[in-house]
Design goal:
Blueprint: E1 2-10, E2 13-18, E3 21-29, H1 32-41, E4 46-51, H2 52-57, H3 63-73, E5 76-80, H4 86-94, E6 99-102, H5 104-108, H6 110-120, E7 125-132, E8 135-138, E9 143-148, H7 149-158, E10 163-168, H8 180-188, E11 193-197, H9 203-209, E12 214-219, H10 221-224, H11 230-248
Length: 249
């Protein structure tokens, strides 16, 4: 299970929202590059970056900063927020971002998602499953669609999507623990590369998530509030991997 430390960018600063509410914003750093460098120094391989300005308005205002973070730290970047066209997908992947998260575009144009997967490969495209009361949202979590979580997941599987990022919006930024029930339902659909997001508050949460067939987990608020360190989270995963290797032997 990959640990994806998260940096949410708004107006060039590292922030966190509660339940996706732009009125409930906490600024954690004015220096995103320093935060990313610290994660890299702790042993991270991936960084999950969200352009919140882009997610809300469609105007991607933090891409230059994301590029700088990638160049300076060497971290693999999983980027989301405001990616609304195939042209933007092609441009962002061509400049070197390893993986893109599609939210609003996926809800509004499944054919565009299919083309992106076919053109760039399923490993470089993630579809965001941002759920509120069981329904998929878009537009920076501000618009509720008619799709249920499972209905939308099945639709995306049909067009070739492999990677899914599941967020229970009610838990995001609340440190109340991940939505294990929702993750179990997605696993039953044969969503093989699920990334869990929202609610992680402790190493115990990570240990529990290890019991599920996940690609990884995104951690944001818990790191900023020092519930545990990234080094501790990565060490936990390393121990699990070593145990798994021993079990195989």
């Amino acid at each position: 299970m990959v640990i994806y430390p998260a940096i949410d960018l708004k107006e060039g600063k590292v922030v966190r929202l509660k339940q996706g509410d732009f009125q409930q914003k906490t600024v954690y750093s004015d220096d995103p590059l320093a935060v990313a460098a610290d994660y890299a120094g702790s042993g991270a391989e991936w960084l999950h970056i969200v352009d919140l300005d882009g997610a809300k308005s469609g105007e991607r205002k933090n891409i230059k900063l994301a590029k700088k973070i990638r160049k300076k730290t060497g971290l693999k970047i999983q980027l989301g927020g405001g990616i609304r066209s195939l042209k933007e997908i092609n441009e962002l992947l061509e400049v070197g971002f390893e993986r893109l998260v599609l939210g609003t575009l996926a809800v509004k144009d499944k054919d565009a998602v299919a083309e992106a997967v076919n053109s760039h490969g399923p490993e470089r495209i993630v579809v965001g499953l941002d759920a509120k009361n069981g329904l998929i949202t878009s537009g920076g979590w501000q618009e509720v669609s008619q799709y249920s979580l499972l209905e939308f997941s099945e639709l995306m599987l049909e067009v070739g999507v492999k990677y899914f990022l599941y967020t229970d919006i009610a838990r995001d930024g609340m440190l109340t623990g991940p939505d294990l029930q929702g993750l179990a339902k997605l696993a039953e659909l044969k969503c093989t590369e699920i990334i869990a997001s929202g609610g992680v508050s402790s190493l115990a949460n990570l240990k529990k998530l290890n019991e599920y067939p996940l690609n990884g987990v995104i951690i944001g608020q818990a790191l900023y509030q020092q519930r545990f360190t990234l080094s501790e989270a990565l060490a936990l995963q390393s121990k699990k991997q070593e145990k798994g290797d021993l079990d195989v032997i």
